Prior knowledge:
Low-confidence stretches of chain B: 1-23
Pathway (chain A): Protein modification; protein glycosylation
InterPro entries (chain A): Oligo_trans_STT3, STT3-PglB_core, STT3_N
CATH superfamily of the largest domain in chain B: tricorn interacting facor f3 domain
Mean pLDDT of chain B: 86
Mean pLDDT of chain A: 84
CATH class of the largest domain in chain B: Mainly Beta
Number of helices of chain A: 35
Number of strands of chain A: 9
Protein name (chain A): Dolichyl-diphosphooligosaccharide--protein glycosyltransferase subunit STT3
Oligomer: heterodimer
Number of helices of chain B: 3
Helix content of chain A: 55-70%
Largest interface: A-B, 32 and 29 residues
CATH architecture of the largest domain in chain B: Sandwich
Shape of chain B: flat
Largest sheet of chain B: 10 strands, mixed
Enzyme class (chain A): transferase
Domain STT3/PglB/AglB core (chain A): 542-592
Structural class of chain B: mainly beta
Distance between the termini of chain B: 101 Å
Strand order of the largest sheet of chain A: 4-3-5-9-8
CATH class of the domain at 523-713 in chain A: Alpha Beta
Amino acid sequence: MSTVKSVLFKDPASTESARSILRVLILLTIAAAAVASRLFSVIRFESIIHEFDPWFNFRASKYLVKHGFFDFWNWFDDRTWYPLGRVTGGTLYPGLMVTSGAIWHALRMISLPVDIRNICVLLAPGFSGLTAFATYLFTKEMKDSGAGLLAAAFMGIAPGYISRSVAGSYDNEAIAIFLLMFTFYLWIKAAKLGSAMWGGLCALFYFYMVSAWGGYVFITNLIPLHVFVLILMGRYSGRIYVAYSSWYALGTLASMQVPFVGFLPVKTSEHMAALGIFGLIQLVAFVDYLRGQVPSKQFNTLLRALVILITVVGFTGLVTLTVTGVIAPWSGRFYSLWDTGYAKIHIPIIASVSEHQPTAWPSFFFDLNMLIWLFPAGVYLSFRQLRDEHVFIIVYSVMASYFAGVMVRLMLTLTPIVCVAAAITVSSIFDTYLEIDSPEEQEEDSESKKSKKEKAKEAGGFLSSKAPFVGIYSITSKVAVVGAFSVYLVLFVLHCTWVTSNAYSSPSVVLASRMPDGSQHIIDDFREAYYWLRKNTPYDAKVMSWWDYGYQIGGMADRTTLVDNNTWNNTHIATVGKAMASREEVSYDILRKHEVDYVLVIFGGLLGYSGDDINKFLWMVRIAEGVWPQEVQERKFFTSRGEYKVDHEATDTMKNSLMYKMSYYKFPSLFPPGQAQDRVRGARLPSEGPVLHTLDEAFTSENWIVRIYKVKDLDQFGRDHFAVSAFEGGKKKKGKKGGMAGRAAGKRGRRVVRI
Amino acid sequence: MRSSNSRVSLLATLLLAASHLGLSLNIPPVYKNTNLLRTIDASKAYVKETIAVIIENTSHQPQTEYYLPLSVPGSSAVSYVECKDKKDGTPCTAEAVDDTTDYPLRYYKITLPKTLQPAAQITLVVTAGITGALKPVPAIIAQSDKQYLSYTGAKFVPNPYFTEKQKTKFRAANGEIPDYTVYEHTEKSGYIVTYGPYDNVEPWGTDKQVDEFTVRFEFTNPIVYMEKLERDIEVSHWGNNLAIEERYWMTNNGAKLKEQFSRLSWATTSYYNPPTAAIKSLLFPLRVGSKDAYYTDEVGNVSTSKFRSDSREAILDIKPRFPIFGGWNYSFVVGWNNDLPAYLRHGEGDGYILKVPLLQGPSQSTSYGKVEVRIILPEGATNVKYVSPIAIHKEERFLHKTFMDTIGRTSIKLTIDNVVDELKNRDIIVTYNYSTIAALRKPLMVLASVFSLYIVTAILGRIDLSIGK
């Protein structure tokens, strides 16, 4: 034991190469574990794109690969948002598609023609390995490589990050979290070294981040905040100046090259903090230069007063400019970060998205497990050392904790810093308790002190932050603490695997259930119906559905949609909402005016699939009401007791709405009379199903989840469809009485056709 | 059934064709058909016509060529023609006569297996597959209705020679035959409607009257039609594997749906499993030893397939995502692997002989609009020759570049139009040369690229980019 110890711990210099090889091996293992833990869905189902937004990204990637970069850049998509179309090339973050396109071309160049779908599916797991590496580098700057390895391991398997990066989850976040961590690492490096090169690299990756995800605003605000706090702490230095100026100048110019961002960095409030700090740091530098020329003891006080004054003036100026309209005010999504009730009142479309809801507290534990209680300890440890980079951890922790509490989605930005802080904690505990020898007075002087020094040097930290060595004497406490933490770590791994396997690995396009004999049964209704649309409708058919399914219809059915998950036009979405929520007479008019050929609804009543359109219906009503308050009223969809009912108690407005009719059309006939049951809402339905006059059922999937209706053409004789149904219905009744139903009807029909 | 109008027009066309024929194709009346039996088998989704005829040389010279027309009315077309001597099974060649004016008859020149001396007799059996001759009548039916097909043909067998005695047998798919044209000597028993025997029939075209018969019968199976099939046969010497992938573009050519699809009635009746004109599933009998079968389509894997492979059989049973009714389309991909040794022999020197089925496919009766078979041989294979069991319409040779290839794999693409599944499971024999150097190309290339990558990394690592120390 002692020889091992002497080899591994006593003389770090001579074992450096062995250590670095070990580190590389550990990092590779972590990357492999990170990738492997994200492959549940591929193994259980198949290599398939998940959820909703990834389907658009996938479609865009295919377009990029097929038509080339410049066509992609100028892509006007006339197959979405019919009849408006969408300037897709200018309204998306191209980073993700360009990344996978570049990988596709690179692999092709070394004659590995991998299908673009597989690249898209496996991009997120691949980048999660890189994220682990970036986290390692970042944490290494904070403490040492031991903490870095722990942080990388945590980051690799933390469910908070896995939730957005499993195989098939081909979304912007797939690469953005890597870019976030790497940009932060480069920033820390730049701030530490005061190097314009690192600052420039930081700007480069910031540009990549801007091109990849709207969440780049987090970096845009966090780095200035870090600098601002440092200045307030009186820690201004030339290093900070060089790092910030080079990052801001280069990064902002670069970010403006992304068409979707354009002039936003100088026009909107979200970016004003960075601009303000850029101005401020110039002033501070100037003042600092003056101080060098005119030394004075009162200068510090003066400086601070000046800084505060300018901040106040700058802020007032900003507010004035915003009020007068020169600078665009905060966008709705950002308002909802400050006022959680804002979206619900003013922009129902943002509130209707489940990932924009405030976070429930158990989800912190669910997504981060033990890291969440190690996190404060890590922040505390940062306070103890409080070098410039530790200030960054503290600032990041505070901001990210707030945002994660406001919006479920932003749990993603909290996860990296939690991993870093927790790794610092665990690493400190192990540093303290895993010392095999009990400290002795003499040893402390000579060897262990030397090793501390070496470690500090190795980490590139400052010797000033060296703490007096404190050791643990009792072997029992060592074993207890180390043992407990080892158990925690194992439990953490088990928890992460369990969460990933159970909560985050379902493609949601394909549903899995169990047969009575325990074998897996796959419910594939979505693809069944989308594929039917793709194969058996004209290529230019227009499909109307609620916006959730727009991307999937575009991706899988390859048909023109009216609205999709890129919710850029609220009125158009409200129009679809109105068509769904209105009576057939009103809806048919809207459908005709938009040249809709097919209407698609999701209905879970047969199977108990709760994410169906009837459950989303109130949002359609609300969004429509926001635009046409006179024509669609939410109140009318509730019973007199204020209940949302679909059974015989449902209000007339509800029963006559197109959505209700399409969902339950012919459904009760599937059951014995009076037994019709909606398994989602647990309601017994009236045995007489709704009657449709203006639509024909065109296709219903095996488990009735997707129902597609064909919009009837105008009647050949200029009657409205209600008159037609009444006429045909009436004829049938007469026929029954007369007894010669079929022939009479047939003859009459034929005669009319000849005229 | 048919209006008198269309019959007149058909008659006119036939006469026109006959008069043209006289100009372009001069058939000497050197034979007499002693006995002719035509069997029209419509039990599949296409027509299989078999003509058994005893011919006698009535001239004074020995003869070797016999002309036989097949009727291809409307949009129908001849897929294949095969011929043999009935007595000893010697095959004879049937060659389409290059004459486009003879519509609706297509003439074939048959080279007899042996020279026929004056007054000698020989019995020929000519088999032909004809697609597009069956029409759903009515063309539009309700979802649960029965499907009926209709066939129209000439009462007398078209033949340029005098026939002493002839008979036509029509075999329907089903005993349910609601309509058929009745002439003298017409008889229906069970599945079969017989026209004849008719004695002393004049050569075709000399008779002014062309009588047609029409049979309408129930057809409980879907009419599976593959607009296009792309079949890849990939040989890997290193992997010791024969990979087969087939991409199908399928249509149901049966009667179209009268109204839209109703899931309710489909679900409620499916418990009784009634016969339906919709394609519910396809069964692919594969060669024994096939493994790793998959079934996907443009939106990913389809989970409703079963694959069973044991020492006696290998069966891939696939169920499309939705039932395919008349006029509906569906496209899909199936593929599987085989161990190479069962299909590849080492010949002389570095020569290899590959023997694989040119066409496989579902067990349901199927016709194909266009079949493209790509045979992908290893990179560096040369001197590729093949012997095909079916007439190939177009051949292309190219290099197929895929995983880790430097020059691309030697490939041939064989295009065959209008195929029926009667022709499946026949082996194509491909011979090629493949040297050891060509076989070593791939591992050496990989080795070289990894090594050069290592060198480049090592050199880059030694470059010092710092500005001053």
